[in-house]
Each structure stands twice: as structure tokens, then as C-alpha cells.
Amino acid sequence: MDVLLPRSLDEALAMKAQRPEAMPIAGGTDLMVEVNFGRLRPPAFIDVSRVPELSVVQQENGHIFLGAGVTYAAVVVGLTVCRPLVQASRSVGSPQIRNRGTVGGNLGTGSPAGDALPVLAAYDADVVLRSQARGERSMPCGTRNAMVIAVAGLCLQVDEDSRRVKIALGSVGPTIIRAREAEDQVSEAMESAGVWQDRTKRPDDAVIEEFAGRVAAAARPLDDVRGTAAYRRHACQVLARRALSWALDERALPSWL
Amino acid sequence: MVVRTRVNGEWREAEVWPGSSLLSLLRDGFGLYGAKNACEQGECGSCSVWLDGALVCSCLVLAGQAQEREVRTVEGLRDGTQLHNVQQAFVDAGAVQCGFCTPGFVVAVADLLEKDRNPSSVTIREALSGNLCRCTGYQKIVDAVNLAATRLQART
């Protein structure tokens, strides 16, 4: 086994082009467990934890660019403009894990339990990919398989501009799930009740209950050692009701508060 | 591969299997046995050290990732024969039972007090959420943190 230590993104991409079988490693919070337990023996690791281009966080034209190597600890401290991602990042592991684990690693591992992934899905994040051969390309935050840690996770966004409530679920199916029917129902109910026009208004409790039920119905959970499918579905309903209520409470506050 | 790392202020190097963890480099390469090998999956915090100033589980860092970097371990806390404030507080509060988790806790508590000299009980519990103790039930450990914080504030 070799360990390659690039000091720039170009150098890392050149190494990957030359050794396609080499596996990138950043925080190691998933990969090192596999190595320690003898389940993973790649021919080479490329340590991308010191590639400066990957630890960049910047805002441009209303978008946030988050480098794949930005740790959860760095998100908590530095990305206060994106509260959902801060909240999700704070819920990851422990201080030790948050100091190492990265949002890019969450995508690379592709577990439906990845704590940052519902946020990326709810915000329709694009993933920017780069290789030496193909240059740079962008793809929507998609869906993949596996499972670990979290039992249920949820990110809800109230998008005032497009007048849409968006909601993404984690750990309750083989992929991250967008509950589109629930999104349609609540967004339309808020439209007809004039909630979008007046931030102090709220939809009826019945609307919120129906929304929570539809979110739970969108989940495709399984039974495993960490929880039953019934518990996960119930958790989705409770989380959806709470998240929407909190978001509605918050949008009713004056902007200076 | 040969890994060269600055450990507790001193440059050291050792030959390791490239898939080794930083924990293995410290213990088997450098003979520093303070960081303990327990879960090897970042759950228990017994192997906590600082890597370039950040509290990490050394079992989850590839040894090569510490190449030319700064590592601080529990062995670096003592000043000559004088125990570090956190170490002394653990002794005085009776926060040590079997002692296996203690080095990891001491490092995590020292990290906490470097950031917050007067942590609330909620902060203490959250800051130590990555360290497991199977003996104490944690209360004596929390007492030790409060004792160390009180002594730290009295000093200045």
C-alpha cells in the first residue's frame, strides 16, 4: 500500500489519473474504520486533507460553495449563513469526529444516514466533480445506497422566493428521499390561506398534520438493529410536524430578532 | 513508509505499514502509550490527541496524514514532574477508576478548557460526548472538569 500526499488539487488529480485505483481519504472517519478492521486494503490512499482548494468556503451570487474537505467543525464555526447545515453538522458524532469528518466525505461514502445529505438534497445542491481527463462538471445531489449510524433525519426549507416548502429525509430508505407530494400539498395550502403573503399567518393545524402524514408516507424505512420501520416512520411524522412549526414560528419573527 | 512528525515539540520519525493509524504510529513507532487502543472506530475517544491543534481520534487518522505535522499527546501535558491542572483535578476529584479512558478524557477536557474556561454543565457533557467511560458513571469526571475550571480561573 502507498500513501500519496498531494499539496494541491492539480497534484491530487494528476495522482488519481496516474493511479485510478488509489482511494482519496480526508477525515478518515469512515475509511479508517474499514482499514482498522481489515476490511479495506486499497493499493494506495491519496490524502486530500491538506489540499487547500478543498477547504474553501465562499459565497457567490447567493450560492454557497463548500469545499469537499471542509470539516463539520469548520461548518459549525464558519457557515452561520446556512443554519440547517450548521444544525446538521453539529449533530454529527462527537467533537473528535466533527474535527475530522467532511461534507465531501459524507457524499463520498454515500450513506443514506449521512447527516449533511438531507440538507444538500432539500437545497437542491449541485456536486462539482473534477478530474484531470474530464475537467470540471456539475451534477445534482443524487441518491445512492448503504447504511450506518442515524435512525432518521430530516431537513425542511421554507423557500420564500419560490413559495415552496421543501423537505428531504435521511436514513429512512435506501436513498435520501424528497417528499414531493407533501411539498406540493403544504405549499399550495399555504398559498390559498395567504400565508406566503403574510409572514405572521400560519396554515391550519389540520394542514400541518396532513403534511406530517404525507412526509411519513414518503419514507421507505426498514427494520434493523438501530430501529424498527414503524419507529422510523413515526419519527418522520413527528420531525416533519416540529420542523414546519419551528420554521413557521421563526418566519413570523421580525427580521431584526 | 517512514513518517516524520513533531510530537510534543520534538521531531520524531518511525517506519510504519502505510495502512497504520496515527495511534499505531504513536504507540508502536514512538513508544508513547498514553493514547489507548480500544474501539478503533472513533466511538470511545481513548486515543484522543491533538493533530495541528485539533482534537481527533488518532485511530481514525492515517499515519501518513501526520507526515510533517504537529501532534500533541497526553504525555505532553505534564510540565516536568508537575501534573497538568486537568490531570491534578482528575486525581483530586477521584475521577479515575480503572484508568483506561483517563488519558483520552484528560486530553478532551484540556481541549475544552483551552476554548472555554468556565464551561456550563451542558457544554461539559457535549464536549465529552466523544469519550466513553465504563466505570465512573461520569459524575466524578464532570466534578474534575469543574475543579480544573475553578483552579484555572483562580490563577488569573
Low-confidence stretches of chain B: none
Overall body shape of chain A? globular
Number of domains of chain B: 2
Judged by helices, strands and strand pairing, the structural class of chain B is alpha+beta
Uncertain residue ranges of chain A:
144-148
Query: What is the second-level CATH architecture of the largest domain in chain B?
Result: Roll
Q: Give me the CATH superfamily of the largest domain in chain B.
A: Beta-grasp domain
Briefly, what is this?
Chain A has 257 residues and is α/β, with parallel strands linked by helices. Chain A folds into two domains: 2-140, Uridine Diphospho-n-acetylenolpyruvylglucosamine Reductase, domain 3 (2-Layer Sandwich), CATH 3.30.465; 177-252, no CATH class.
Please provide a written account of the structure.
- The complex is a heterodimer of chains A (257) and B (156).
- With 257 residues, chain A is an alpha/beta fold.
- In chain A, 39% of the residues lie in helices and 18% in strands.
- Chain A folds into two domains: 2-140, Uridine Diphospho-n-acetylenolpyruvylglucosamine Reductase, domain 3 (2-Layer Sandwich), CATH 3.30.465; 177-252, no CATH class.
- Chain A has a three-stranded parallel β-sheet with strand order 1-3-2, with helices on one face. Chain A has a three-stranded antiparallel β-sheet with strand order 8-9-10.
- In chain A, a hairpin with a 3-residue loop joins strand 6 and strand 7.
- In chain A, helix 3 crosses helix 4 (83-90) and helix 8 (180-192) packs antiparallel against helix 9 (205-218).
- The model of chain A is unreliable at 144-148 (pLDDT under 50).
- Chain B has two domains: 2-74, Beta-grasp domain (Ubiquitin-like (UB roll), Roll), CATH 3.10.20.30; 85-155, DNA polymerase, domain 1 (Orthogonal Bundle).
- A five-stranded mixed β-sheet of chain B has the order 2-1-5-3-4, with helices on both faces.
- In chain B, strand 3 (48-51) and strand 4 (54-57) form a beta hairpin.
- Chain B starts with a strand and ends with a helix.
- The mean pLDDT of chain B is 96.
- Classes of the chains: A alpha/beta (257), B alpha+beta (156).
- The A-B interface holds A 1-3, 5, 25, 27-29, 32-33, 35-37, 41, 45, 47, 49-50, 73, 93-97, 99-100 and B 1, 17-19, 21, 40-42, 45, 48, 54-57, 59-65, 67, 108, 111, 126-127, 129-131.
